[in-house]
Amino acid sequence: MDPVDRTERHARLKELTDVLFRTRGFVPILLVTGAVGSVLAWMAQGQDLLRTVTDIGSDHTGFNGQVFWLCLSVVVLAFQAWFWAHVIVESEFGARERWPYKLYLTWTPRLLGLVPFALLFIALWRVSSATAWLAWVLGGLGLAFLITLWARLPLTRAMQRTSDHLQRTGNERAAAAIAVPLRNLRRIIFWFGVVYASITLALIAIDPVTLPVFFGPAAVVLTGCALLIPLLITLLLIGGRFHLRIGISLLLLIVVFSLWVDNHEIRLSSSNPELQRLAIASRPSLQEAYAKWRSQFPPSPARPIPLILVASEGGASRAGYWTAAVLSQFEMETRGEFSKHVFAISSISGGSLGVAGFLASIHDEKTKSEIAAGNTTLRKAVSDFVGRDYLSPALAGMLFPDLIQRFLPLSFLPDRSAALERGWEDGWIARCRAIPCDDQDLLKKDFLSLWPVEPSHGWLPAWFIGGALQEDGRPILTGNIRLGDTLDAWDFHLVAGRDVRLSTAILNGARFPYISSSGTLSNPAMPQAVGSVHIVDGGYFDAAGVETVRGLAQIMLAKGGPAADDAIQPIFLLISNDGINPPYSFETGARIVHTSVPIACRGQAVKSGCPGNDGGLTTVAPDLFGPVQGLYRSRSAHGERLKTLLYRYAPSQAEQKSETKVYTIDLCSMEVPMNWALSQNARRVVDDLLSVRPVSEKRGCEQQNNKDFGELVKLLQP
């Protein structure tokens, strides 16, 4: 090769390398826009999030306020992607006339601006044929956006010529009105973004519920990403100017500040501490609680009294809505007998939200009056609370105050967990506006206030919310009964020495990794000297929630236990929702208890939601994603193993006075994603599973549900 040609090739390669390095800021823009768009387009949670916004399957499908904000937020994200990519080009290469590789530097920012439109088009197209019109609307907006970018240069040149003409003709004020914005457009947009982000941050820090729920979860995510791009690119440009490693510097900043900054403190009750300590000490023991439960029934019953222990599996709003539906349906079918026979409920993660709605509704006198008057049903009353949008507050708290707090040396901003709790509190208030209730601030009240010392509403089932302690992995239970050393678990109230709001109690077991932060509990009353401990999601230890009720039953039914000599029939009711539960035999339709692979996945390991299908993560990068997937799968498998052990070795009375029954009511659908917001379509899928239909129209799982449901209802008949 000619030395001259070789030199020219090296020069061109060096120039290309230099251009790519100086435009490395394109990569974070692509990652931000591509990540959020891909979640909406290809993840089940993202698809249902769009259904939540567009109300697919409801009676009012069409254009609404949240659809408008969705479209607007896509346009804003697209503009930010293009504008800040263009800022990189202008900052690095100056005037257009001096640009090398003009095609690359001109069209890459434009294509980055089109990424949100393209991915949202795909997402809406995949959601349902009913959203095709909206997909085409976004497609049209994307085309208009591209045309505007193409026409921008001729338009700005024409405006500059007009300004120059006005200047020459003596109209200096009019000329300045055109020229000043043109010269300072970048600065104006930057400061507008700063002011907009600051106002948004302040409003969400004060009230993380109202605005996010009004805009909808999709708009919250897209807006958060749109406000993140200017910050990232500005820091990148500053780092380039002063030769700083911005990415590493920010990471080090987060790590250093985390040594003393912690805004994840559990919100302890603000009521009188002395009264709280008295309420904690006044909780009944297991023996006392059983005696109170037993007093509802005749001393010498004609047949064994069903004693029901309920375990509700975790899974965000999917678990909450399914749990609420199942419990409410049992209560309606048995005309109130069900809750009388339920001694205790153990709930994990989102299942606790459904339990909260159920218990709050069945002891609410105004709700009972509305039901008696035929104005509503228990199912509707509970579902109205559980089915609301709680994802928007969580996302807003995560993307705004909680994210900013990571880079500040002083802890003063609220975290995403507090936003989720406030979402539940406002959700109960909204439910009480729709269906009258006794106390619209109930979820802001102390957890133990649900069980007053002298109740006027009769028996209310005991409730144990399962969390896990980050420091030792043991369960930590938030409950209204003193268990002492009878279970191998921490008692939250004894560890904290205080009570918490009902909303916080729910979150004590629903701190799903990353979506909700772990909760910090300072100065715990524990044997070992520790400054603070942290509570994480109860699913880490027992995703099914069965271990608590199994342990309770062992103690109660063992020789010398409270229920050892009584004429009772122990019944376990497992409410399962994750689609990976003990399946059913092809031949007999009976449950198989030695495996946890769902029947729909037999021979279909590539099917969505089946074990072995993780979206290709371990296939692409097994060394990176394999351990994470293994930990997550083992979390679910541990819960399934505990359920299997309960099936095989259910606790019973020493003298076997009656057979112990174990019933499972499964969410027989993989169509309901695990999310803190459920679309009308997802809620309809859940509701249909408990609807009255001919058995011939139901699948094997639904038929088994019918069988178990019918048997338990029959056992509760007087």
Walk me through what this model shows.
The chain is an alpha/beta fold. Helix content is 57%, strand content 8%. It is built from 28 helices and nine strands. Strands 1, 2, 3, 4, 5, 6, 7, 8 and 9 form a nine-stranded mixed β-sheet that branches. Helix 18 packs antiparallel against helix 20. The longest helix is centred in the first third of the chain and has 37 residues. The radius of gyration is 29 Å and the shape is elongated. It starts with a helix and ends with a helix. About 6% of the residues have low confidence.
How many strands?
Answer: 9
Helix content: 55-70%
Determine the N-to-C terminus distance: 98 Å
Which stretches are poorly predicted, pLDDT < 50 over at least 5 residues?
56-61, 580-618
Please count the helical segments: 28
Strand fraction: 5-15%
Biggest beta-sheet profile = 9 strands, mixed
Shape: elongated
Radius of gyration: 29 Å
Protein structure class = alpha/beta
Residue-averaged pLDDT, rounded?
81
Please name the defining characteristics of this protein:
718 residues, alpha/beta, nine-stranded mixed β-sheet, 28 helices
Summarize the structure.
This protein has 718 residues and is α/β, with parallel strands linked by helices. The chain has 28 helices and nine strands.
Secondary-structure topology with pairs:
Blueprint lengths: L2 H20 L3 H17 L1 H11 L10 H29 L8 H26 L4 H37 L3 H12 L1 H22 L3 H6 L1 H26 L3 H12 L15 H9 L4 H9 L10 E8 L3 H18 L3 H5 E7 L2 H12 L2 H8 L5 H9 L4 H15 L10 H19 L27 E8 L5 E5 L10 E2 H5 L5 H6 L11 E4 L9 E6 L1 H4 L3 H12 L10 E9 L40 H4 L1 H27 L12 E6 L13 H10 L10 H16 L3
Parallel strand pairs: 1-2, 1-8, 2-3, 4-5, 8-9
Antiparallel strand pairs: 3-4, 3-7, 6-7
Helix pairs in contact: 2-3, 2-4, 2-5, 2-10, 3-5, 4-5, 4-6, 4-10, 5-6, 6-7, 8-19, 10-19, 14-16, 14-18, 16-18, 18-20, 19-20
